[in-house]
Structures are given as structure tokens and as C-alpha cells.
Write a structure and sequence with these properties.
Shape of chain B: globular
Number of strands of chain A: 28
Shape of chain A: globular
CATH superfamily of the largest domain in chain B: Beta-grasp domain
CATH superfamily of the largest domain in chain A: Aldehyde oxidase/xanthine dehydrogenase, molybdopterin binding domain
Oligomer: heterodimer
Number of helices of chain A: 20
CATH class of the largest domain in chain A: Alpha Beta
CATH architecture of the largest domain in chain B: Roll
Bound molecules: FE2/S2 (inorganic) cluster
Distance between the termini of chain A: 38 Å
Radius of gyration of chain B: 15 Å
Number of domains of chain A: 3
Strand content of chain B: 5-15%
Largest sheet of chain A: 7 strands, mixed
Largest sheet of chain B: 5 strands, mixed
CATH architecture of the largest domain in chain A: 2-Layer Sandwich
Helix content of chain A: 25-40%
Strand order of the largest sheet of chain B: 2-1-5-3-4
Chain lengths: ~725, ~150
Amino acid sequence: MDTLNVSRRNFLKSTATVAGGLIIGFHLPHNSRLAQAAETTETAINAWLRIGTDDSVTVMMAHSEMGQGVHTSLPMLVAEELEADWRNIQIETSPIGGVYQNPAMGMQITGGSTSVRLRWEMLRTAGAAAREVLIEAAAQQWQVQPENCRAALGKVIHTNSGQTLSYGQLAEAAAKLMPPDSPKLKSPSEFKIIGQPIKRLDTPAKVDGSAIFGIDVKVPNMLIATVKQSPVFGGKVKQYDEAAAKAIAGVKAVVEIPNGVAVVAENYWQAKKGVEALNVSFAETEHDKQDTASITKLLEQGLTENGAVARNTGDAQAALKTAKTQLTAEYSVPFLAHVTMEPMNCTADVKTDSCEVWVGTQAQEWVQQTAAKVTGLPKEKIAVHTTYLGGGFGRRVELDFVTQAVLLSKTVRQPVKLIWAREEDTQHDFYRPAMRVKFTAGLDEKGMPTAIQTRVVGPSILQRVFPGAVKNGLDSTAVEGIADMRYEIPNQYTDYVMKNTHVPVGFWRSVGHSHNAFFLESFIDEIAHASGKNPYHLRRTLLSKSPRFLKVLDTLVWHTNCDQPAPKGYSRGIAIHHSFGSIVGEVAEVSVSEAGKVTVHRVVCVVDCGIVVNPDTVKAQMESAIVYGLSALKEAITLKNGRVEQSNFHDFPVLKMAEMPQIEVVMISNEEKLGGVGEPGTPPIIPAVTNAIFAATGKRLRHLPIDHKESKL
Amino acid sequence: MITLTINGNEQKVNVTPDTPLLWVLRDTLGMTGTKFGCGMAQCGACTVHLDGEAVRSCIFPVAAAVGKKITTIEGLSPDRSHPLQQAWIEEEVPQCGYCQSGMIMSAAALLEKNPHPSDTEIDQAMTNVCRCGTYSRVRKAIQQAANT
Ligand code: FES
Ligand code: FES
């Protein structure tokens, strides 16, 4: 993900807007793969920012806002270099394709904690180029040298005379000038906006109910649908009572879809009653006997097989043989649902020659492709409108609900808003895979690990989503966080045994790191205790060549005294993990009652994410990621008779206010390359807590979830 | 026809009496500020006030709301001036924002009854789900609003 190369492939272009004003964008060279999409509607598709004659600065948003704050941090990048007046900043959702594609993925996708990292150079360059042409336009008007002019707060100022012209006054003249290809960018010490806790632009609309999420979309003449899908993944409909559903007032149509039946009605309540009246039964499938026990057995069996090699440094096998002692442990985690607060939904309006889709999505381009496939229309005829997302966490990169909505609108020839019940959402997710791992470590006479061998077993996400990315049976997401561990253990061997089941798996906040940090950071703790070392000191020794990691560890100690015994009645656990370009260390302070109830009192989180764009957003994302991770201590998706047993919040116990620990976030300030912030806070929290539980009880929790009945969080 | 009083206005709706108030607001009246999260009184996303009491509208039949004063997030204040909305902005509470209408309505009902709640009282009253984990900021914003 080299942002530098990406932006150098493009060159800058300015254009006048129809209404007068300046547009700055990247023009794509013709040899670029992206160019084809861009050629037809060049001005519209390449623009990053638009300056109106009314002084407004509109920044195009190619990434979806799902709570992570990008609709504020991205315009901050433009405003910084543009020397804009922040109060004049507006945002607008971009069209699909062209420069709006995620340069790391060649697709317009919001995910992988990439948005700000990948646009870092591009958006600042666009802002700086606009600033330079605005200065040039002013200099021409005043007939002075541009060097004697400067930009500040949305104006160009002639230094000697003090006269000023606002960006709005200059926009039209600037649009006629050629923007520089490589305008001068600021050094971090010159930043005025980047690094400030700028208030989020989307907050006001989110406190008065006016923010529009996918589920809120209204289209004239729209009907509302809901579905009943086969409870066993891959199952087909056997029979249903169409007449009973149609007898319900307001029900307009009953439509069979590939894995179930939909009822289309005037409102959701009628559609829901309609679906219940259908009394759908499903045909038997070959998976009807699958359950959590059979899947666990499959994964256990995988532990005895040889896998695809993910890392082989030194000679782990030989080193294990000569080690003074060996330590072995098995760990596992269950499937997990995303449970975004807003259930899956999508609105589609399919006409004979065009189609519009309104959806909270992380993947606009896939939505377009999907709608093209379902309707048979060319991609250019599909318009995608992105709304706010009521949570994404990886779930809204999927297209199952989009396919259904487009199919329904195509069938009933009317706009249709499809809304899933929470039960469908919980039982038809693309789950965080259930995984199992076995570690063997060899320790020398001082108790230091000389070798570590890891076998990771579980279903593959990439095999479903990007099969081309699976190399010789290796899914990199299954081993991330273990195969690339930073610990200086000279002999390391990691392999992966793919065991797919009928349960669909997908990207869940922090993906493979979500389980691998729990596995590895627990096992490192086991090594520390087996060798009589303080877990912090052991980590410090094993990370001696990684100064940024040491700084995170030492900062944790400074804030928690986690190198010392905890006060009576409390215990502490530490974990550190790097993912998505950021390093996060967390210490959990926990108490365990005599009855075994666990309470997490306080979490201290130290994050090194390189340059901080918006400190309050980083803080909010760490808090959010910690809660999301902590929830998983008690959550599990289990299977019986091939189907998911959980259905709603009553049996999928997400964390609530009363269980909320105090969270303190400390940012390491430096000028390192930007890291992601949406996901990296999640991986270390569970091992920090389970390591603390071990410190309190001597009980090593190797299999999640912890028993919810006994444990309070 | 069912007559409702919503945010001070009389509204006539033609729906079956068992229709949950949530869907009357959202689908029949187009008032989408009140959200759907679970449909079984578990998450609080659909919280509105009925005569000042917090009610989970997803399981509340519209017929039972007749003759009561219904307040939704749209009616909490005309211009985001309610102390809770101000505090929410000040503390930058929302992330995805989807749960926040329900959070604010639950908090408003709490402050109505208990103008100076302790943290424990807040924890007990606020059983809404936020998957973005904004709980500490919610707590802080309620305390801030209580002190203005
Ligand atoms: S939608 Fe009513 S409580 Fe969840
Ligand atoms: S802000 Fe996203 S669910 Fe609460």
C-alpha cells in the first residue's frame, strides 16, 4: 500500500464548474487501468474538491461513513493544505470508480482501516494544488509576484499591501490556470488542522434524527419487503402458503428468492406478518447434521494435518528438540456475528433501462456490479447512492441483501426497500470464522523461547471473497498477527490448515487479528509464567529491536504500573499487537469475585498510529474497538441441526453500559507513517482481560467464550 | 382511522391497531429518526416518550398510544437545543449514530425523573445497545446535561 506510487500515477487537473468556480482533481493517464472508467465523465469523476464562488469548499467523499469519522478526517487533509476556513468545508458523496477507487484494492471499498492512510497524499496534494492556483490567480489580479502572497483561512493575502481576496472571489480565475503537478506539501510541524480534535461534521445530524441511513431512504411509490431465508445455509425452499400471506392487508407480492421467500407490502409490519403467515418450510440439506461439536471436531482434526506454510524462519523443529523445556497449548474461538446496530437493508428501483440503489455499503462498486448482474443492465446504467451506515464492521462489504433488493424491485416493477428482521441479520451473517490453534514453544535454560511452532486451523475468508488471493492453500488473513509476529524468537514455523464448513465467513472488525492476538498474546503470557518472568518484562526482552513497541510497552507501565503487583483484590493483564499499520498495547484491570464473576474495571490503551489526523477520532475508535472486542468475551454463534442458534440481542449478549469499563487512551505522538485506527484497538483487549483473569485465578482461559452465566463483565 | 398526538400535532393514520408504533412513525408518517434495531424491546433504538415515559415503540401497539402525548427525537427540540443534544455534540458522542436517537430519548426520560443521576443510576436506566461502544461518552454527556 504505497500511497506515494498511487498519487504519482495521476496528474492534477483543474476545471471550471458549470456554476463558475474551481474544481481540482486528478486526471488519470491513459495507460492506467483506471483511466477507462474515467474518460467518459472526466470532470465529474476526477474531482476531489470544488471551490464555489460563495467561498464554499466541497470535498468529495469516496469512503463510507460508518462511525469511524472519515467524513471529517478526510476533509481535514484537504483543508490543511488548502489553508481553508474549516467553517466553509462541506462534503459530498463521490460517484463510483476512477480516482475514487481504493488504491490498495482497485475497487471503491471502505475497509481494512485504509481510508485516511490511502488518501493521505492524494487529498493533501489536491488541497495544495488548489492553494497554489488560487495564489497565482490572486497574484495575477494584483500584478504582483506569487511569492509575495500567502494563503490563510480561505483567503489569499498580499503580504506587503495586506489586501485580500477570498477563495470564492478567485475561484473562477483560478479554474483557468494549470495546477502544479507536485505542489509543495507541508511538513508535519506546519500542520494547523491535522492533529487537532476537530468536531465531526456528521454529529449534528446524528443527535436530532435527521441523519439518513439506508433504512431511512424514501422513494416515491416505494414498497417495503422482508425475507425468510433458509435457516441452514445453502438450503432451498420446499413449500409455503402464499395465499395466507396475501390475505394480509397491504401485502402486494410474494416472491421466491434463491434461498428463501420475500413478502412485499405497503409497510414493514405487513411484510413481517406476511412472512410469518407463509409458514415456509425448507428442503433437507446435506448440512442438517452439522453442529458446533462436529465443526469443533473438524478443526481438531485439522490440528493433526500439515498445513500451508506461512512462516519458516530458522529451524523450529530442530530447536524444539534441543530445547530445555517445551510448552504446548491449544486455543479456540467461536464464530461471531457482526450485529451492526442497523439491520441489513437496501432500496432498489429497477426500471427497464436503468436502476438506482440506495444503500449503506462499504463497497459501492460491488453494489453496482451486483445490480448490473441481476438486472442485465450495463454498469453505467446503475446509480448507487451511499447513505450513512448504521455500523459496518465488515458486514456491509457483502452483497447478499443488495442482490435481494434489486431482484425484488425487478420482479414487482416498483421501488422496493428490503429490511431484514434482526433474526435474519443474526442468522445470515458472514461470520468471523471459528478458529483453532496449537502452539509449541521451546524454552532455553533461562526460560527464554528459542522456537515457536504454530498450527492455525479454520475456515478461509479469502477462499470465498478473493479466491485468487489464496496461495497454495494459504489464506493470509487466517495467520495474520501470528506469522508476522514481531517477537524475536529465532526459530519460527507457522502453517495453516484450511477447514471450510457450510457456515459463510467474512471480514469482522480486525479480521484474523481478532483471534490471533488472543491466541498469541495469551501464549506469550503462558511462556512468561512458565519461566517465572513478569509478562511485561518478557515482552520487552523479546521486542528489544522494535523501539516503537518498546515505547508502547513502557507507556503502558507508566500509566498502569503493570510491572508491579496489582493492588489487593485486583489483577492486571497486558497485551500488545500490531495490525493495519498501528501498534496498540492494552492493560486491563480486572477483579474476579469468589463466585467467579469477572469485572473489568479499567482499560488503558496506548496507541502508536503514526501521525494522528484527529486525536478525538483516534480516541473514539480505540474506545469503540475495545468495546467491540470485549463484547466477544461472551459472544458466540453456535450451530445446531445446521442452523445458527442465536437470533437477537437476548441470546447474543453484546456489551452494555453497565458492563462498561473506564477506558483511557494514550496516543504516542510521532511523525511515523500513518497507521489505521478503525480496527487495531480490537485485537489486544481479550488477551489483556484473560491474562488478567489468569493473574487473579491461575485459570488460563484458552477457549472463548467465557461462560456467560457465571461471568459478569 | 387512528388519531395520534405526535410532537404536539394531531395525526390520523390508517393502520391495523396491532401495528407497532415504531412502524407507524417510520413507514406511515415517514418520521425516520426513531430507529429499528431488534423488534423485541432489547436494544432501545426505537425509544420514544409516551406522556414523558420512555417506551420501546417496536413492541408497542399503536392502539395503546391513542390519547397519549407521543414525543419522538424529531420533537425533542426544534433546533437541537435540548441540553442532552447540546451535551451530545459537546462530547462528540455519536459514531455511526444509529443508536443515538434512542439513547437520547432514554436519557431525556431519565433526567425528567431524576435530574441528577449517579453513574450507577445511569447504568441501570440506560440499557440501550450501542455497537459502536459510545457508552462512556453517553454517560459523560448525561452528566454534563444534568449539570446545565
Ligand atoms: S427496536 Fe425496539 S428495542 Fe430494539
Ligand atoms: S453510535 Fe453506532 S450503534 Fe451507537
